[in-house]
Amino acid sequence: MLHWSQCTTPWRTKRGADIASGHHQLVVADMKLKLKKHWTTGQTALQRFDTAILRHTSKLNAFKITVNNRFQALRNLLKEVPTMEDIWEGNKEALISTCQEVSGHKKHHHKEWIFIETLHKIEKTKSIRADKQKDVEELRY
């Protein structure tokens, strides 16, 4: 939704755009617009794989074996003279499929917007304010 008062800068009317009448005037204004970014989902999005799982030796060995098997199968398929693009696509597909199979995608963990310590501090300040208010009311009477 646009807020026209915020988008338009000082504007002027000009009489130069008359079309057989004196009532039509040309309005000249500069506008500032902010465009929203349109995120696409699916294959075009950046795929982040969970590489921290490869720190475990068993997962690392499984990854190595799977990659070697995929590259061996790729070499068998490309016995004829392959182009550079064929080699690149084959390597890319082998690595991506192996990463999906062994490690999976990296899951985004959202940060807590407020911590438990902060909640405790808020409760503490509320109780201190309530005690001060109680003391002030006792002094009044």
TrEMBL record:
<protein>
    <submittedName>
        <fullName>DHC_N2 domain-containing protein</fullName>
    </submittedName>
</protein>
